[in-house]
Design brief:
With 476 residues, this protein is of the alpha+beta class. The protein has helices at residues 12-22, 39-58, 72-76, 79-85, 111-121, 166-186, 233-237, 262-271, 297-313, 329-338, 349-354, 378-403, 411-417, 431-441; strands at 26-28, 35-37, 62-63, 69-71, 90-95, 98-106, 130-139, 153-163, 193-196, 208-215, 221-229, 241-243, 249-251, 253-260, 288-292, 319-321, 343-347, 356-361, 370-374, 405-406, 422-426, 444-449, 457-458, 465-466, 469-473. The strands form 6 sheets. It has an 11-stranded mixed sheet, sandwiched between helices. A 5-stranded mixed sheet has the order 16-15-17-18-19, sandwiched between helices. The longest helix has 26 residues, at 378-403.
């Protein structure tokens, strides 16, 4: 704890790795590429789950659970799907000491197994729509891994819906993208850009893929949540049909959408500083930490009743009292800064005498973020401060993002700006240009924003006429 974190400006990657370990968010598992999510990291994920789950249920979705194991033949039914995932599959060939008749895939995603079940459940237009979400884990055999951002096994939610018409399915796809955008902004204080993926970047087997893209503290992009319109691809592969009102058999239109523990990484990288985590108040496992300060038992007897009173007044918030006696107050301050707790309240003998507390904001380290608040009416002041912290975190992240998005004049300038920022440029839509840009710069198309106004210009790479602008960036 005494050793400082690496500076973000000098080694952002090592800062990120060390912060996760020191803040006890997660640790490396004995299996390469896997992680153990520790209680503090899991508490953050639980709060993400609660915020999303409430939104899913408010839009009519229900939770269910599907198997971890999927017959290999299921993945082979949808050609694009199996081609997209085949390099990442973990396959089980032996069970109970015997070779299996058919290999089983440890699910990388559940479109196939859910499609199979939907074909059994859906018979009539009266059975539609089906709106199901599941919380679970999936396995993708990634070659290069990083805690939370990309691991062999990760936790997520995946929504899967079936509809009678293409219009309904597209509306669902966009609705869930809006849910993710609302969550990112109003819970995590992360500004995101919702948009459509290019053909090469879309989900394997999808007709259209949509994404929310966020800028991290090193200016790299992070795909933070995706929503896919699957057309009738999986419905045809798995024979998901219904009898319409005219007694004709029709194939369903399906969607899928997901957000994973990679969003924990987004929170860390979008908001953290050289002192550690800065957690958004609405998701932070601990919103307020109270640190009693005393030198002896007499002072402790004076301070403790006030600490208990303050804790009781803050009921309804996630509050922790740091009662450790084996470390100094200064150690505690640094420890809670590292862990990103939004508000720290200090109560010592002088505070008791004055009827006040010292309140420190994590998003404003040092004297700037510290104030002395009367104990009377403290709950209202804390609530107001938590709201102010959320707003300030969002505005800071937004200002940082906007300051690092450029509209380069030509390809030479483009190659420069994507090394430390994003380019918002016209693109002709040709895969050849997209591929060459990636080869030249390691930047990829992130999304075509949904709020884009009609226009035209020259493709940033080839100079041909283009009708859409795209965000290009190096990404995690």
């Amino acid at each position: 704890m005494d050793e400082k974190l690496p500076l973000r400006s000098e080694n952002f990657s090592e800062w990120y790795n060390q912060l996760i370990l020191r803040a006890e968010m997660a640790d490396y598992a004995p299996v390469r590429g896997c992680m153990v999510v520790r209680p503090y990291g899991w508490a953050l994920w639980e709060n993400i789950q609660k915020a999303l789950d409430a939104r899913f249920k408010a839009t009519g979705h229900e939770n269910a659970a599907f198997p971890l194991f999927i017959p290999m033949s299921f993945l082979e039914k949808e050609k694009e799907h199996v081609e997209g995932f085949s390099p990442e599959l973990a396959v089980v060939t032996i069970g109970g000491g015997e070779k299996l008749e058919e290999p089983l895939v440890v699910r990388p995603t559940s479109e196939t197994i859910i499609g199979h079940m939907y074909s059994k459940w859906i018979k009539s237009y009266r059975d539609l729509p089906i709106l199901i979400n599941q919380w679970g884990n999936v396995v993708r055999w990634e070659m290069r891994t990083r805690l939370f951002l990309r691991t062999l096994e990760f936790y997520w939610q995946e929504g899967h819906t079936a509809h009678a018409t293409e219009k309904e399915a597209i509306e669902e796809t966009r609705r869930m993208l809006d849910v993710y955008t609302d969550f990112a902004v109003n819970e995590a204080a992360i500004p995101v850009i919702p948009g459509r993926k290019s053909e090469s970047e879309k989900f394997a087997g999808a007709a259209e893929s949509y994404t929310i893209e966020a800028m991290m503290g090193d200016t790299r992009a992070l795909q933070s949540g995706t929503s896919h319109s699957l057309g009738q691809n999986f419905a045809r592969a798995f024979n998901i049909q219904y009898l319409d009102e005219s007694n004709n058999m029709q194939f369903c239109w399906t969607t899928s959408w997901g957000l994973s523990t990679r969003f924990v990484g987004a929170i860390i990288m979008a908001h953290g500083d050289d002192q550690g985590l800065i957690l958004p108040p609405r998701l932070a496992p601990i919103q307020v930490v109270i640190v009693p300060i005393f030198k002896n038992e007499d002072e402790r007897a004076l301070v403790s009743p006030v600490v208990e009173k303050v804790q009781a007044e803050l009921a309804g918030l996630r509050v922790k009292v740091d009662e450790r006696t084996e470390v100094t107050p200064g150690f505690k301050f640094n420890d809670w800064e590292l862990r990103g707790v939004p508000i720290r309240i200090e109560i010592g003998p002088k505070d008791v005498e004055k009827g006040s507390v010292a309140l420190a904001r994590r998003d404003m380290p040092g004297r700037e973020g510290k104030s002395f608040i009367p104990q009377t009416g403290l709950k209202a002041e804390v609530d107001k401060t938590l709201l102010a912290i959320h707003t300030a975190m969002y505005e800071k992240a937004l200002a940082f993002r906007d300051a690092h998005i450029f509209d380069p004049a030509d390809y030479e300038e483009f190659k420069q700006v994507v090394q430390n920022g994003w380019a918002f440029s016209y693109w002709c839509g040709k895969g050849e240009c997209e591929g060459q840009i990636k080869e030249d710069t390691k930047a990829t198309t992130r999304c075509m924003p949904l709020d884009q106004k009609p226009g035209e210009g020259k493709c940033i790479h080839c100079g041909d006429l283009a009708h859409q602008k795209v965000y290009f960036a190096r990404a995690y």
